Amino acid sequence: MFIDKISYAFTLVIIGIIYLIIWTSLKIMNKDIKSNGSREEVKSAGFEIIHPGNGGSLKKGGVIPIKNEITIGRKEGNTFILDDPYVSSFHAKIYIRDNDYVIEDLDSTNGILVNEDKINGEANLSAGDIVKIGNTVLKFIR
Fold first, then answer.
1. Number of neighbours of residue 138 by Cβ within 10 angstroms
2. Which of 128, 141, 137, 142 is nearest to 49 (CA)?
3. C-alpha distances in angstroms, 8 versus 3, 11, 20?
4. What does 95-115 look like in DSSP terms, one character per residue?
5. How far apart are alpha carbons 118 and 137 in whole angstroms?
6. pLDDT at residue 38, rounded to an integer
7. Burial class (CB in 10 A: 0-12, 13-18, 19+), 72
8. Do 84 and 108 contact (CB within 8 A), yes or no?
9. How far apart are CA 64 and CA 137, in angstroms?
10. pLDDT at 23
11. Are 67 and 96 in contact (CB under 8 A)?
């Protein structure tokens, strides 16, 4: 008799779980139907490594993702560390402003080249721009 009660309770729990799964699935499908199956496009950007310079951990063709803001430099505390004597401790910052990606020189000693032009202060980045920081060459991708 006791086993019959446990078996009955276990059956009810299993049926409840199945109904919960079905209800959740229908709720998700209904949401997809209302949105016509469209999803917001996630904008992403990053730097493709064209020439790794002195960075032993960098691989040609690798990608450095940019989410909100990154800093590049030689010292700890940067988002992306370049072990290069031509890179300042805190060399550059890349961030989003008004849906544009901006690269800012953080008063580095050797500067930043964007498409072979040395930038003063900051510059907007466009897809395909070539950025040189120290001996490292990066391609901005979006």
1. 24
2. 137
3. 9, 5, 18
4. EEETTEEEEEE-S-SS-EEET
5. 14
6. 58
7. buried
8. no
9. 12
10. 93
11. no
The helix/strand/coil state of 66 is strand
The residue type of 133 is I
The pair phi, psi for residue 100, each rounded to 5°, is: -110, 145
**How many degrees, rounded to 5, is the angle at CA 32 between CA 26 and CA 36?**
140
The whole-number mean pLDDT for each consecutive block of 10 residues of the chain, a chain of 142 residues, reads: 83 94 91 68 79 77 89 92 91 93 95 95 95 94 90
Per-state percent for the chain, helix, strand, coil, to nearest 5: 25, 35, 40
d(CA 54, CA 75) in angstroms, rounded, equals 15
Which tokens go with 117? 């032009």
pLDDT confidence of residue 32: 79
